[in-house]
Amino acid sequence: MYDIKWIREHPDAFDRGLKRRGLAPLSGNLIKLDETRRALITKLEQAQARRNAASKEIGQAKAKKDEATAQKLMAEVAGLKTSIPEMETQEKYAIAALEIELAQIPNMPLDDVPDGADASGNVEHHAHGKKRDYAFTAKQHFELGEALGQMDFELAAKLSGARFVVLQKGLARMERALGQFMLDLHTGTHGYTEVSPPLMVRDAAMYGTAQLPKFVDDQFFAASTALIQEISGKLAPSLAGKDLEQRMFAEFFDASKMWLIPTAEVPLTNLVRDSIVEEAQLPMRLTACTPCFRAEAGAAGKDTRGMIRQHQFTKVELVSITSPENSRREHERMLNCAEEVLKKLDLHYRVVTLCAGDMGFAAQKTYDIEVWLPGQNMYREISSCSVCGEFQARRMNARYRTKEGVRHVHTLNGSGVAVGRALIAVMETYQQDNGAIAVPEALKPYMGGMTTIERA
Question: What percent of the chain clears pLDDT 70, i.e. is strictly above it?
């Protein structure tokens, strides 16, 4: 979320930043909306002041036995009492109109973010390790998992539909081991505080980290039976399916429904929502290993085989709450923490700096870590580390206290890393010629003595 005052004072810089995001100039329209808002506020304040002054003048007129003046003033006050509620409604609509526009504008890229419209404009930052050579044709993870009898997509489809998986035996153990290994590394070595957050959050939390309202189609929400019955009763009985869901969101945005988190970034970052923390508490470094839920609305036809793109997956998230002066340095530190996971697993990867047109909505700058998958013979994203500046903090009203006053915090988030994709990378990297999966040294303490995963 932007500060409209800053946009008024720096319209050209604002439009230049958005142009790098592929957007047309927006400052003119926003400033007009703000002028309307400010004019209505002024008009309302003047009307309220006049109502108060006229009320006092009525008493003075009556004290002087000036009944004609008193009656005239009483009529004026009555008229103001009628018009002021209308002005208040107009003011609320003007404020909402501006906020709605501001809420749908992405963060501006930092100066050192490369230009570009899509992933082709991303720039490799550095790489670690080398691609392994195999004396056999490397298989993809789903070929390996299905041959082991421990990765079942058909069984998951019976339970939940497409883009789900059932893991069993050694692969289920390895998925758990990866999450535990990452948490131990980030808490024990990197100084993050482990958090076990709720997996369902309210509208305000999703708005704070910018999943709402722009990306509502990518989210899953859960509503109680009572709420659904209440909503259904108020809507046409013939509405069903997707239409009903759309109407439910449009008409009951503030109702008591809960959103399934798309990432632990949402609850972790919102821990400081509507609060003022002391400067001495910064940086706050938080981590969690949680299931994540995404509708993957724009993923039709993409990665339909395997675990690359699923509705439910596990991820270890890293979140930092820091001061503006330290946020860039914290970004580099977070990247190093995420990289250390892959280094200890001895996985080959590269780091790319995303171009302005390929960054996430809330990011000022993003590093993607792309792990090498021998079975796919390509790099795939396994972590994104982003610095967001005060973009989310303004939406959350998250601040910190300094000697000079109160300021908005800066927020950062990153995957440390995606557990499902780490499992894929380990399976494809450590596959053996007989289809077994060797257990990486870093995971052996978590595998109960298991050194390879084989078909029973």
Answer: 92
Query: H or E segment at 208?
Result: helix 203-208
Q: Using CA atoms, how far apart are residues 258 and 370, in angstroms rounded to an integer?
A: 32
CATH of 119-219+262-453, one of 3.40.50.150, 3.30.930.10, 2.60.120.10, 3.40.50.300: 3.30.930.10
Domain boundaries, the chain: 4-103, 119-219+262-453, 222-259
Instruction: State yes or no: pLDDT of 151 exceeds 80.
Output: yes
- The DSSP output letter for 437 is E
Work out the burial of residue 372: count CB atoms within 10 Å of its CB; fewer than 13 is exposed, 13-18 middle, 19 or more buried. buried
Separation of CA 96 from chain center: 22
**How many other C-beta atoms lie within 10 A of the C-beta of residue 333?**
20
192/288 Cα distance (integer angstroms): 9
pLDDT in tens, 318-342: 999 999 999 999 999 999 999 999 9
> Please, what CATH class does the domain formed by 4-103 belong to?
mainly alpha
Helix axes 327-344, 419-429, angle to 10 degrees: 40
pLDDT given for residue 224 in this prediction: 67
Give pLDDT, residue 433.
96
